[in-house]
Amino acid sequence: RAAPQVLVVGCGNSELSEQMYDVGMCEDIVNIDISDAVIRQMQERSGSKRPRMSYLLMDMLQMDFPDAHFQVVLDKGTLDAILTDEEETTLAKVDKMFAEISRVLQVGGRYLCVSLAQAHVLKKAVEYFSQEGWVVRVHQVASSANKQQFVLPVFIYVMTKFRKIPGSAPQILEIFPEEQDKPMRVESAERLVAAVKDRQHYALLCSQLSKTPCREQVSLDLCDKESGRPRYTLHVVDSPSVKLSRDNRFAIFIIPQGRETEWLFGTEEGRKQLAGSAGFGRLVTVALHREQHYEGMAGIQAELSGKVMELAPPGLPARQQVPFLSVGGDIGVRTVQHRDTSPLSGEYVVEDVKGDGTCYFRRLIFLCNRNVVQSEVRLLSPTPLPGQKKRRKDKKKPSHTEPPAAIDKSYLCCEHHRAMVAGLCLLGGPNPLPARLEVLVVGLGGGSLPLFVHDYFSQARVAVVEIDASMLEVATCWFGFSQGDRMRVHISDGLDYVAKLAAEGTNLRTIPAQYDAVMFDVDSKDLTMGMSCPPPAFVEKPFLQKVKTILKPEGVFVLNLVCRDTRLKESVLATLREVFPLLYTRRIEGEVNEILFCQPSPEGRQDPTELGARARELEAALRQPGRPWDSSYVLADMLQAVKIL
Question: Can you give the pTM of this predicted structure?
Fold first, then answer.
């Protein structure tokens, strides 16, 4: 096959054509430019050395060549130089340039454009040629050795000319990142522009991180080559207080699967503490995504080694070995047991994860807020039946097996649930354990909170209100929840249910439903709010007055408040004080949660000493022979940090 006839538009004094000629890539090259001085200079420079290459004085907006004359049109930065803005005259000039390029190219020929891919430049080129029915591919050029000179990556647009098909033929748009061995198809010009922008931001970030320590933690996602979905989430944490040596400048920490939501790994403060205790100047934490498959620690290390070095700190010695760290030296275990979509909560998963040691936990995660555990229970290790012999220990290294399925109902995983149960110590009366206890819980989740109250307060009758019927099915099938004579679930909006009870209380023909305890543990679906629990309507004054109406005079209203907005939080507390004369608060260490205990009468006020004594009495009453009790759960400890507002 003959070498392609190549046209270089806006050649300037670039050496690109000369280099292509000299290495034998192609010799039949025509270069055009509108500068007479440039053309004369390049003609003199090539002269007789390159007889088959020509330089012509010509305007690319109005070329003299016949139609379909070239197989390749090459543009090195000319489009970038022309398309400096989006004024009407500029866009008209670019349209003319593209039309002429299209005219002189053969069908099957390619327009190759070397560009820095500013968003408006890329968008214009992609939209024009894709609408003409051409195949559009954007290649990211391999990084230059001299990154100090070229911070932004260079791209080549490869536009392949096809005959335009009448009607709405599907567009073919692809991006070919430098780290991949095949192109990735995208669905729209906007998505293609966004993909290029992501790579530009990443290049700028790497450049910045290689020059100076980062004052704030930097986070980024590395995506799967096939699906384009996030595969790794990285956080770059610098510790200025660490005394640096050759061996402690940089390390990578792999967070075990399923543990990315823990305080140490899932919060900025936690990662800062982790980096400091690890003793490295820069620590990159790596979270693994549940939708992905990983081939152990060695596989992850091989996959990430090249990429994480782009995030290395300034001053890292050449060829420095960078350690990969983890908890226990493995990547943990995560088993997705169930996945579904709720009309109200969206897509969710139930997954079993391995914690510290040999413990397994089952979690409910709403994927719209995947870093928050909605519900969690501990799983029991299976015990052999009477007369059944235990298996001999295999001397071989054990493999990861399926986690146990039985639920440990004696263990409250969530610290805020422990505090909420401890709040029942505030109930009035001479006995720490009332003869009868009416409890209303708004928000079921996995059912751990109402189930614990039901199981350990044998005199309690528990009513649960849950707006999402899917959650009742999840709690029953996967979290050991069940209904009975003392436990009933009502599928209803908590706002409507409480309002109905309060209205019945004002009707003389009915007996008002009154509760010893009302507990709110309900999340907000609006993630744009500074308060994720409860929804704002649950803490408005008219509704709180309805809550007070259904509460006994000596009862307690327990609220799980998760609010990052300081002003909004102060407003909520002020409203609560207007309705409830007695207000206690208990902060959950290492979390945003704050548990509020609200009482309708100031006469029930108890100081910390009284609370501690009452908590010890209640715990003694709850600890019955034959009933397991988690030794780490001490009610008095839960109430030590309680403050009266």
Answer: 0.71
